[in-house]
Amino acid sequence: MMSANKPTPNVLALLVCDQIITDRITGKVSLIGMFSKVHGRRFPAAHPTMSVFVAMTDGHGRTELTIRIVDANEARPPIVEGRGAVDFKDPRAIAHLALQFNGLRFPEAGPYRVQLWSEQELLREARLDLIQVPDQPPPGPPPETM
C-alpha cells in the first residue's frame, strides 16, 4: 500500500525490449524485440540501448515511478535508474510509461532485475539474465568433402 490516501496501482505489464513505438494517430503501442536475456562475449559488457514498458491500472492521480536495473543481490549501485510519472484521471484507465536507457554496462554475467518503484515501494520486478557466450573459433579451412 503506497499511502493511506493513495492505494497502490496494479501493474499489468513490466516488459524489456529493444524499441517502443507509439502510433501518433491511434495511440497504439508496439514493443519491438522483447527479451529477457542479453548475451556478451566479455564482461563488463556494453548494451547500447534498452527500453522498458510499464502498463498500470487502479491508480489515483499523478504517480511518480522509478525504473532501476540492479544485480540480483543488489551488491552494487544500480546499473541505471530512470524516472517518469503517469497520471490516472480515472482509476479504471490503463496508464503507460516507456523509458529508454542508452549506453548500459553490465559488470558481470548473471541474473539482474528490472525493478519498478513508486514512493519507496517495489511494485514489480522482471528478470534479466546476462549470459556469457564463448568466443567463436577463428575460421579454418572448409571441411573436406568426398
Structure commentary:
This protein has 146 residues and is mainly β. It has one domain (10-132): Immunoglobulin-like (Sandwich). 0% of the residues lie in helices and 61% in strands. The protein contains no helices and nine strands. It has strands spanning 10-22, 29-34, 37-40, 45-57, 61-71, 80-88, 95-106, 110-118, 121-132. The strands form two sheets. The chain has a five-stranded mixed β-sheet, with no helix packed on it. Strand 8 and strand 9 (121-132) form a beta hairpin. The radius of gyration is 19 Å and the shape is elongated. The N and C termini lie far apart (71 Å). The mean pLDDT is 92.
**What is the CATH C-level name?**
Mainly Beta
The strand line-up of the biggest sheet is: 3-9-8-5-6
CATH architecture descriptor text? Sandwich
User: What is the total number of structural domains?
Assistant: 1
**Derived structural class:** mainly beta
> Which stretches of 5+ consecutive residues score pLDDT under 50?
none
What is the CA-based Rg, rounded? Answer: 19 Å
From the structure above, extract its key features.
Immunoglobulin-like; mainly beta; elongated; 146 residues
Ordered list of secondary-structure elements with their pairings:
Elements: E1 10-22, E2 29-34, E3 37-40, E4 45-57, E5 61-71, E6 80-88, E7 95-106, E8 110-118, E9 121-132
Parallel strand pairs: 3-9
Antiparallel strand pairs: 1-2, 1-4, 4-7, 5-6, 5-8, 8-9
